[in-house]
Each structure stands twice: as C-alpha cells, then as structure tokens.
Write a structure and sequence with these properties.
Two copies of one chain form a homodimer. With 207 residues, the first copy, chain A, is α/β, with parallel strands linked by helices. In chain A, 34% of the residues lie in helices and 20% in strands. The first copy, chain A, has one domain: Spore Coat Polysaccharide Biosynthesis Protein SpsA, Chain A (Alpha-Beta Complex), CATH 3.90.550.10. In chain A, helix 6 crosses helix 7. The radius of gyration of chain A is 17 Å and the shape is globular. Chains A and B meet through helix 5 and helix 6 of A and helix 5 and helix 6 of B. Chains A, B: One of its GO terms (molecular function) is GTP binding.
C-alpha cells in the first residue's frame, strides 16, 4: 500500500524549542522521519514523501510547499485512493511507530483512522475516492464528519504507538522509554536521559 | 479472568484540582470507575475492587488503605496469579477503556503490560506466581525488570485507550472526544465542552 508521509522541512517541531536548538530540531525530525520510513517499509508499505522542500533521501517524493491539508488532498487526488488502491497518510513524527502497529492500519474500512492525542489524526488509510482530509483543528472529528458526508465507513485503530506524535518535551520521555530506532539513538547521543529521581519520569540532559 | 481494580477513594485526582473541586473530583473518579467496571464485565473479566475505603457498589471488594504497590502485591499473593488463574490489574481511571481494548490483555504472556504515558503501567495481566508490582516511579521499566528477574515472558499491548489514564485537565479533552460512557456524560453534565476556536483542541466550561 502506498503511504504518503508529509514532512515540513523548514521549521520543524517548534514546540521543542525549549529543549532543542533549531538545528537540533531539524536533525531530530530527520531521525524521526527515518524511523517512520523504515517502519513503513518493514510493514510492506511503499512510502512516498510529501515534503515542503526536496529531501536528500532514497525515497519517492513530491515537493509541495502548501499547507498540509491542501498538499495531502492533492496527493490523494493524484494517487486516486480507492478500494483497489488504498492510500495511507502517516505523519513523519511517529517515532514510536513499529511495523506491527502500522500493519494494523491495513485491515478493512473505507477510512481507517489512528487518532492522535488532542483530537489529531496521526495515520489514515483512505479507500474512498471522495474522502478529503482537513488537518486544521480537531481533525479527528472533522475526518469522522467528512467520512459520513461521502458515505464512507470508518474504522479506528487503537494504537498508543500511533497516537504518540512527538511534539513536546514530555514526548521525548516516551521516545527514550519505548523508541527502538534512530530517534531514540539521536536523543541518547544528544545526552538526554530519563530522570526518575522524584518518583515521576522526567528528562535530563548531560552537557 | 479476575481483574483487580485499585481505587483510592479519599483524595482522588489531585492534578485535576485546577478545573474540578474536591467533591467534583470524587464524583468524576466514581464515574470513571463505573466505566472501567462496566467495560471489564462486558469483556468477561470478573472485577474485584481494591479500595482504600469500602465503596457502595455491587462488586466484590477488598478494603486496603496501604499504598498501591503493597496492596496490589498482597492481592496477587492472595489470588495466586498463575497460568491457570491469571489475574489482571486495571487502573480505575482508564475512562477510554472499551471491552475490545481490555480483551487484548487476555492473549498469552506470563506478564502482559499495557503501558501508560510517562512510564506508567495502566493495565497488567499476571500469569507468574512470583511476579510482583512496583508502581512507584517508572513502573513500566520496573515491571520489565521484575519480569526478567523471575524469568517471566512479557507481552505489550499497544492500546491508546489503555495508555490514556485521566490525570490532568488535558486528559479531559480525550474523554470528551473519545469517551463512550459515564465519564463523558459526567463532563458534559458539568458543562465541559471542546473548544476548537484557536485551531487546537482545548476545554471550556459553561456556568
């Protein structure tokens, strides 16, 4: 199954600005993208990068610098999402995604949604040619509505690994605890460690 | 399968103090407990409440006012968790738990862990008589270690519904978005609504 992976190259992960410099954020976002692409390939998806700037990577890619919603909808139109040719849309910051978790997206449903925290949509599979995305605001609710409007069935994938997009410093704790790839290695190399000294799990960084 | 549900009756959910009064927190915690017990029963578990004070509910219960770890370990000893008689331990604040999500705990493994955010352990199944819990700090890591120490195999359940324990105001957003039971009804009756006016999903409360 084709999997579109949107990637905003120019100003990634601004909510991590308290703990990572701009250059570190780009580098860490790149490591997360590598993990997502690797996990997709291992789960037999064909990843297709939808990037705001061309990336120096060995992966099919389309460059589109418009906002996420417009770019993804054009990609869905172009690839013609249908029952015969479903198209997945998987966010590039799912650093905990494993092949097993991603494989759960491929079971039936005109629209398959893996919700993210806060009403987000972290991964989708579209098998209905008229379904369109809307990532602004509570995209989860918008996508339920959009599916209903075109008569598409919806299936939800209850995966914590897919629900965890990495946006904020506390999400780095999850990557250190449960990550298995380049993103976790990146954090460890950058000096991040778990801090369990006060009975809850925090983050420290050595110099 | 027997399912122990620990419940701290006296001072629940202090991290919700910014948005709920003490009496509201007790009432909301009670609604969440109802949802967890209902979902467990619908998934063919036999719930057994492990409460710090006797609860006026039609459910088997043990009163034990010691800290969580000691009380659960005594309950595991008493119920004799084994391959023939596995015992589940399910937190009382999993307001998004569905029968389908809980059923995923019952597949094999000496120790089955549904991790929570921040290194927590939101649900467990124990089939090994020597395994003991430790809920202090990063319990997820402690439980992996405890399983290894007694030679118990570990299986993880990747469920976002089980990973979402309701501790903080932002968790109420998840209950409004994805809850299906008494907890969501409680929040709606208390005047809580989703606020998507600024492009992200927040919470408002009408008077």
């Amino acid at each position: 199954m084709r999997a579109i992976v949107p990637f905003a190259a120019e100003r990634p992960k601004t909510r991590l600005a308290d703990v990572l410099t701009a250059s570190e954020r780009r580098s860490f976002a790149d490591a997360m993208l590598s993990d997502v692409l690797d996990a997709l390939r291992a789960a037999d998806f064909s990843p297709h990068l939808l990037a705001t700037e061309r990336q120096d990577r060995d992966v099919a890619q389309t460059v589109d610098d418009r906002p996420l919603t417009e770019a993804v909808n054009d990609a869905l139109r172009e690839h013609g999402a249908s029952d015969d040719e479903p198209v997945a849309v998987v966010m590039a910051d799912l650093a905990l995604a494993t092949p097993a978790a991603l494989s759960r997206l491929t079971a039936g449903g005109d629209v398959v949604i893996a919700p993210g925290r806060g009403g987000g949509t972290n991964a989708l599979v579209v098998r209905h040619p008229e379904f369109r995305v809307d990532y602004h605001g509570a995209s989860y609710l918008d996508h339920l509505r959009a599916a209903r409007d075109v008569g598409a069935s919806v299936r939800e994938v209850d995966s914590w690994r897919l629900a965890t997009d990495v946006d904020e410093p506390e999400d780095l704790v999850e990557v250190l605890l449960h990550g298995e790839g380049a993103s976790r290695d990146w954090l460890v190399d950058a000096g991040f460690e778990l801090d369990t000294s006060d009975g809850r799990v925090g983050l420290t960084r050595s110099e």
